[in-house]
Structures are given as structure tokens and as C-alpha cells.
Design goal:
Arginase, Chain A; two-stranded antiparallel ribbon
């Protein structure tokens, strides 16, 4: 009598329900000529962080977290099991040279979008410094760029004290003319988390700034809808940049710069979905998750869910 083998060389022992498709089953390595709905690229750089951070490890943990979710949306009564996510891998960053790393990130993002393989793209950081080369690359491809930035901080620090860091991406974009001030929207700016000089700088450059008090007063979704409509009338495409520290520390404990008084996880997800429904939205990055500081991968799981709200709209 032949004995059945339960060995599974090279693979993890994972339970498989015949009726359930997990999101990670829809991810496939990009091959030249292939087409898909979403292009996925990891930007594993966090050595420019002004707070000690292992955010470079987040692309891996977020991808893993996708295995916790199914492709079926009960709210939409739709299964996205045939949705193709093309994974372009992680950029090989320089071990010591930050400027070289930024250039590698820029080149890699351009290389991905120039394949024209996908309708939309998701970039997984890394610290927020990766948004500068990423948005720079997209602006070269698509033209005038509108940005909605979810963040507790303005991220317009001066470049003299430490060069380009995770606190300077939007300063760099504004100073180099890649993004116009009137095309930058900052959502969730938190009290007692920024210097007056940087608050004044963002206002002077014409950025639209919404604090947590503004959100409490006017509602998050109406603000998103208003700004999406305004941006769509003046830009060629819209880029979403999600710094996870916009979320309250109770829901995102894995951020290097945690703090109270931020968005709830439901507010973040609902606002991303509201923004992503507009056809001018082409890309989203998710940054500032340090898996070594997280609890049960709560923050990476929230980031993975944010991806679903962006993809499945």
C-alpha cells in the first residue's frame, strides 16, 4: 500500500480553503510584456531617517500581511481574485550613500512606470524620504503633479542641518519645482508636532493644510472630496503619499514617530478609498513603518488593508 507523503519541500504549511483566494496569491513577479492592474515596488530605504528606524524592512512585512486578507469585498459584493498585481521587487539601495540611493530609487520607479504594464502603482517604503525620488519619477512621466499627503508632519525641514532626510521630501519637491505649492494637500497635520517655521513655509508656498482640528470640524471625507475635485481641475495626475504616523499610535504602534491624537484606522481607510476612486489618481506610497517597533504586525496589516482600499475601488 502506497504511503501518502505530507512533505512539502520549499513551501510553508499553509491551510488552503478551496473557496478563498488570498491577496498574496494574486501577486506575480513582473516579466517583460506582462500586463496587470497594479504595479508594486519596494523602496527599502530608511537610513535617512532622523529617528532611528528599520523602515527598510517594511516592504517585506507588508507583502506578508497581504496573505491575511481575501480578495472578496462584501461591501461591493465583488471578488477580485482575477486582479493581477505585478511585483517589480525591491530596489537595491546603496549601503552608505544616501544621494546614490535616492538616484537608484528614482531610476527604478521610472523603469517600472515606463513599462506601461499597469494602470496604477503602489510604492512601499521605507521612510518618507523615498517620496521625493518617487514623485519626481512620476512627474517626468505624467506631467503636472498633485499630491495628497497624509501625515502628522509637514516634512518641509531645511536641507542645511542634515541634507535630504525623511523630514525633507516635500521641501525638496517644492524647491526643485517638481510640485507646485498649490498642488500639495496635507491631511492630518498634528498639533505640537511641527515647528512654526515649517508651518509658515508650507502656507507661504501655497499648500492646503488640514489639521486634525480641521478634520474634527469639517469631516475627513468631505475634505478629501473637495481637494480631489480641486486638484483634478488643475493637474495631470494625482499621487497619494501615506505616512502611517498620521494614524493614532493606538492603531499604528509600528511608526518611528508615534503620537496620540491622529486618525483612526477606519478614517485612514475610508479617506484613501474616497481619494482612489478618482481616475486621475495613479499612484500611492506607504511609508514610515518600522516592523521592529510594531506589535503583532498591526501597522503592516493596516498598510496592507490601505493597499486594498486603493486597489479595489
Amino acid at each position: 500500500m502506497e504511503q501518502f507523503s505530507y512533505l512539502n519541500p520549499g513551501n510553508a504549511a499553509v491551510f488552503k480553503d478551496r473557496y478563498v483566494t488570498k491577496v498574496d496569491e494574486c501577486i506575480m513577479a513582473y516579466k517583460k510584456g506582462e500586463k496587470g492592474e497594479i504595479g508594486l515596488l519596494g523602496l527599502p530605504s530608511s537610513k535617512s531617517s532622523i529617528t532611528l528606524s528599520n523602515a527598510a524592512n517594511a516592504p517585506r512585512t507588508i507583502r506578508t500581511a497581504l496573505g491575511s486578507y481575501s480578495t472578496f469585498s462584501g461591501e461591493q459584493d465583488r471578488d477580485y481574485h482575477d486582479y493581477r498585481i505585478l511585483d517589480f521587487g525591491d530596489v537595491n539601495v546603496h549601503p552608505t550613500d544616501n544621494e546614490e540611493t535616492l538616484e537608484r530609487l528614482y531610476i527604478s520607479v521610472r523603469e517600472m512606470i515606463e513599462t506601461d504594464a499597469c494602470h496604477r502603482y503602489i510604492l512601499l517604503g521605507g521612510d518618507h524620504g523615498v517620496s521625493f525620488p518617487s514623485i519626481r519619477a512620476f512627474s517626468k512621466k505624467y506631467g503636472r503633479t498633485g499630491v495628497i499627503q497624509w501625515d502628522a508632519h509637514h516634512d518641509v525641514r531645511n536641507l542645511e542641518d542634515g541634507g535630504r532626510t525623511n523630514g525633507t521630501p516635500f521641501r525638496s519637491l517644492l524647491e526643485e519645482g517638481i510640485v507646485r505649492g498649490e498642488d500639495l494637500v496635507q491631511i492630518g497635520i498634528r498639533d505640537f508636532s511641527n515647528a512654526k517655521a515649517y508651518h509658515d513655509y508650507a502656507i507661504t508656498r501655497g499648500a492646503s493644510i488640514y489639521t486634525m482640528a480641521d478634520i474634527d470640524q469639517d469631516g475627513l471625507i468631505p475634505l478629501i472630496e473637495k481637494e480631489i475635485k480641486r486638484l483634478a481641475a488643475q493637474v495631470d495626475f494625482i499621487y497619494l503619499s501615506v505616512d502611517m504616523d498620521v494614524v493614532d499610535q493606538a492603531y499604528a504602534p509600528g511608526c518611528p514617530a508615534i503620537g496620540p491624537g491622529g486618525l483612526t484606522s477606519r478614517e485612514l481607510l475610508a479617506s484613501i478609498k474616497a481619494a482612489a476612486t478618482h481616475p486621475r489618481v495613479k499612484a500611492m506610497d506607504i511609508v514610515e513603518i518600522d516592523p521592529s517597533k510594531d506589535f503583532r504586525d498591526m501597522t503592516s496589516r493596516l498598510a496592507a488593508h490601505a493597499m486594498l482600499r486603493f486597489m479595489y475601488t
